[in-house]
Design a protein that fits this description.
The strands form 3 sheets. An 8-stranded parallel sheet has the order 5-4-3-12-11-10-8-6. The protein has a two-stranded antiparallel sheet with strand order 1-2. A two-stranded antiparallel sheet has the order 7-9. It is globular, with a radius of gyration of 20 Å. α9 links the parallel β11 and β12. By secondary structure, it is an alpha/beta fold. The model has no long low-confidence stretch (mean pLDDT about 100). The structure holds D-xylulose (XUL) and manganese (II) ion. The site of manganese (II) ion has 4 residues, from loops.
């Protein structure tokens, strides 16, 4: 899809293969056939995505040796090229393997920490071969279920050592922390983008440490996602987003973008537009789940809906009258400002 220019922003769109799934949840099994890899790629292309977000083992099994891995990565690169798509990032999946039960780089067992760094370096190799320098870290199990389980001082030290080892492994990669305060653990060690940036600022190469903000993760923290995005944009650190929505403080719901709170979604699009997101090739990524009740033939509608809502909100953003807003702000008449915004969202 051609780049969508809105304000100073240049929007291109990405999606992860896990966003199409057969509907299993913690309480029940799959309820529909899974799509094959080829079908998923076709669906993504048809909906209008420009890039794919990968976990390392989406590309090939983590058990393959280096030669087999390189062969599989080349085949994936060819597939992407044939589809006219790119790889946005690769994220080491450090939460499913038996060696990551207690976490990756904060695990108490040194052998498990070694597994985490080795697997992460392998993810870097895969990313570079696929043609992307972006590595996403979602620190799924880098936290605890009970405070006493890990020594926090040791854990922060290990966090910092891990970041430095990865930054040193390749001098071109960009590390994007996707922070989430809880789930699966009770409490993550670095629950917010600010925590991660503070750790990154003390790393060996702070300019290569940035952020991917997921809307729902900010909401789980009680932070408005547009403010989280604006902070990172202001610092030059917003290198990716996972747009979605969330109904209150529950589990991470990954609802379609804008489906719960249109005003909150509008503010995200408005901030991205004003902040010039995408000028350096950053993608507008989705991280959304289809409802379990959906039948297979319509189990991609959460993706097309999310994109449609995003684009509809771009149209509204383009109608925002900056002079009017300045007038209301100067008069400190935020009631009138609210009336203007709400009616704009109602198409009035
Ligand atoms: C988990 C989450 C992950 C990351 C990628 O909440 O959002 O899917 O986006 O590892
Ligand atoms: Mn995500």
């Amino acid at each position: 899809m051609p780049v969508m220019k809105v304000g100073k922003a240049q929007f291109r769109f990405s999606v992860g293969p896990w966003n199409l799934h057969p509907g299993a949840d913690p309480f029940g099994p799959p309820v529909r056939e899974d799509f094959s890899w080829a079908q998923k790629m076709e669906i993504f292309k048809q909906i209008g995505f420009d890039a794919i977000q990968f976990h390392d083992d989406d590309v090939c099994s983590a058990e393959l040796n280096p030669a087999e891995t390189s062969k599989a990565v080349k085949a994936m690169k060819k597939q992407l090229k044939d589809l006219g798509m790119e790889a946005e990032f690769v994220a080491p999946r450090l939460w499913e393997h038996g060696n990551t039960v207690d976490g990756g780089w904060t695990a108490n067992d040194a052998k498990c920490r070694k597994y985490a760094i080795d697997r992460s370096k392998r993810a870097v190799d895969i990313a570079l071969e696929l043609g992307t320098k972006r590595i996403v870290l979602w620190p799924a199990r880098e936290g605890t279920y009970i405070r006493e389980a890990k020594d926090p001082f040791e854990s922060y030290k290990r966090y910092s050592e891990y970041l430095n080892m990865l930054l040193e492994y390749d001098s071109s990669i960009l590390i994007m922390g996707e922070m989430k305060p809880n789930e699966p653990t009770d409490a993550a060690y670095l629950p917010t983008p600010g925590h991660f940036l503070a750790m990154g600022a003390q790393s060996k190469d702070p300019k290569r440490v940035g952020i991917l903000i997921e809307s729902a993760h900010s909401m789980l923290l009680g932070i408005d996602p547009s403010d989280d995005m604006a902070l990172c944009l202001a610092l030059g650190k917003l290198w990716g987003v996972h747009l979605n929505d969330q109904d209150g403080l529950k589990y991470d719901q990954d609802k379609s973008f804008g489906a719960v709170n249109i005003r909150r979604a509008f503010n995200q699009v408005w901030v991205l537009a004003r902040g010039g997101f995408g000028q350096k090739g950053e993608y507008v990524g989705l991280d959304v789940k289809a409802m379990r009740t959906q039948k297979q033939d319509g189990s991609m509608k959460h993706l097309s809906n999310s994109l449609q809502f995003f684009k509809d909100l771009c149209e509204i953003v383009q109608k925002v009258d900056g002079d009017k807003i300045a007038e209301f702000r100067n008069a400190r008449d935020y009631e009138e400002l609210e009336r203007y915004i709400v009616r704009l969202l109602m198409g009035k």
